UniProtKB/TrEMBL annotation:
The keyword Ion transport applies. This is Potassium transporter. GO terms for cellular component: plasma membrane. The keyword Nuclease does not apply. Pfam families: TrkH (PF02386). It comes from the Bacteria. NCBIfam families: 2a38 (TIGR00933). The chain crosses the membrane at residues 39-67, 88-109, 143-161, 182-200, 237-259, 298-321, 327-350, 362-386. It is a multi-pass membrane protein. Belongs to the TrkH potassium transport family. InterPro entries: Cat_transpt, TrkH. Keywords: Cell inner membrane, Cell membrane, Ion transport, Membrane, Potassium, Potassium transport, Transmembrane, Transmembrane helix, Transport. GO terms for molecular function: potassium:chloride symporter activity. The lineage of its organism: Bacteria, Pseudomonadati, Pseudomonadota, Gammaproteobacteria, Cellvibrionales.
Amino acid sequence: ELSAMDAIFESVSGLTTTGATVITGLDALPRSILIYRQLLQWLGGIGIIVIAVAGLPMLGIGGMQLYRAEIPGPTKDRKLTPRIAETAKALFFVYLGLTVVCALAFWAAGMTGFDAVAHAFSTVAIGGFSTHDASMGYFQSNTILLICSLFMVISAMNFGLHFLSWRRRSLAGYRQDSESRFFLGVLLIGVAVTCSYLILTDTLSLSDSLVHGLFQTISITTTTGFATQDFATWPTFLPVMLIMFSFMGGCVGSTAGGIKAVRLMLIAKQGVRELKQLVHPKAIIPLKIGKHRVEASVVSAVWSFFAVYMFVFVTVMLALLGTGMDFLTAFSAVAASINNLGPGLGDVAANYASITPVAKGLLCLAMLLGRLEIFTLLVLFTPMFWRL
C-alpha cells in the first residue's frame, strides 16, 4: 500500500518518463497496475515530443530553435507541417509506429505478448519502467537486449527528423544532422570506455562485458534507465561516468531527458572557439553548427539554460543533503531526477522507497523541471505569461 507521497512520486516519475520507482515486488502486482504504469510513461513520452517540437517554439524556448537553424531543407525556418495539430498528428503516428515495431520485435525475440507491449511502451518513451523487479535482466536474452538498445537509440533521436526521413524515404537527413552525429559519437565513446574498463578490470567475462557494457551505457546515457544487473556494483569509475553521460541525454525533439546533445555540442564548440581566440586575438571566428552560423543570442540562451540547470541541480542536491542524505545518494538522486534517468547510486540504486517524504517531494520538483526544460515551468508561473 502506497502513501499519498509515494503515489505522487510514482505518477510524476511515470509522466515525466523518469522511471524512478518506490514500488517493490513488481512480479506479484496485478497486470492492470503494471500496464497502467507503462501506459503512463508512453503517454508522457508523446506529450513531451509534441511540446518540444510544436509547443515550446511558440514560447521562444526549447532546443528546437537550434535544430531548425541547423537542418537544411523543409524544416528550416518553418514547422514540420503548417499547423500544430497536423504536426502533433504526424509525430504521434511516428511514435505509434515505432512502438508497434518495437513490441513485435520483443515478441519475436521471446517475450510474452504482455511483456512485449509493456516494454515497448517504456522503451520508445525512454521511460525505464518494467513489469519485473529485475528489469531487462529478467529475460536473460542478449537478443532482447540488442533490440532494446537499438530502439533506445532511435527513440533518443529527434522525432521530427524521423518524420522527415520517413516522408522523404531517405536516411540522408541523419547524416546531415550535426546533433545526431554528435550524439552517436558520444554514445560510441561511452560504449567503448565502458566495455574496455569492464574487460580490463575482469568485472565480467568478455562476452558479458560487451553485451552489458553496450546495453547499460545506452540505457543510462539516453536516460532510459533499464538495467540488466546492478551497475552500482561495478567499479566506482563506471557508475559515476555513466551518471555524468546522462546529463547529455538525447537529442532535442525526443523522449530522452538531460540537457540535450545540441546544447552540449554548442557549448563545446564555443569553448574551442574561445581557445582559438586566445591564440589569434584579432581573428573573427564564427560559431557554426553544420554550415550555419549561430547567432550570439542563441549562444547566450544556451549558456543561460545550462547555468540555470546547474543551479537547480546544486540547489536540490544541497536541500537533500540537508535532510541527512549522504553525498553519493544525493548527487545521483538529483542527477537521475533532473535528467529523467531513474536509477541512482547509494540508497536509491534499487528504488526510492527508503528516502524521506520531503526528499521525494524535492525529487518530484526536479523531475518536472528537468522534463519541461526548466524555463517552460518557470514561464508558466510568471504572471506576465498569463496576461498575454
